[in-house]
Hints:
It comes from Schleiferilactobacillus perolens DSM 12744. The protein is mainly beta.
Amino acid sequence: MAISRIGFNGHTSDEFHLAISYPFEFVHPESDITAVSVPGVNGDTIQSNMRYKNFVQPVTFVLHRPFQSPTLQSIGREIRNWVAGDDYSPLTADLISGYEWEAHVSAAPTMTITNNMWAQVIVQFDCKPFLKRLDGQQWQSVPAQVNNTEQWSAEPLWHIKGTGNLTLTVNGLAYQLNGIDDEIYVDSERALVYKTLTDSRAGLAIFPDNDFPVLTPGNNTISLTGSYTGFEYQPNWRCLA
Length: 241
């Protein structure tokens, strides 16, 4: 058994006396496709739905109760409270250093007790299909050029402080933002434009083909014109899990 840990919902597994059990099997996302059978035609026609599906990543832990610590049942309740939630949360692991899953737990963890000191705990994490790179999750100044070293386009979260009409240009495509009052966020991943999450500014955006600005693999050029005092982003570098 090798000692390793995960981080989730603001805590790490070793806080609950858990160590990942090996061997560890990584699960990977499936492409969402539809196979269409046509009478008289050999073989199915494949139609891509242009997306990857969520997948369930099980993690099996060994729980060793320290001497004079709470009972295994009490620790089990703490574990269930730890992973409970109704939204996605970053899931990190020593096994994927530098990246994180976006996951939630919909089914309660299972615990199999061996004796009053040892138990096996299994947690099923429902994960989005892409891993997020940790160095793309912090706010940073937007450069004039940036290299996306991943094989997939990044969908950044952009933040601009300014007023009036502004134009964000990415790789020669102009994304217009008209009538800005103080600040605006452009969330390319979720296809949202807002001042706050409860204050939409979608009506101010004029985007080419209604697409949001992304950073394609390789070199990207970025510029912003208009009256602004701040321009930052979270690049959201990503790869397929």
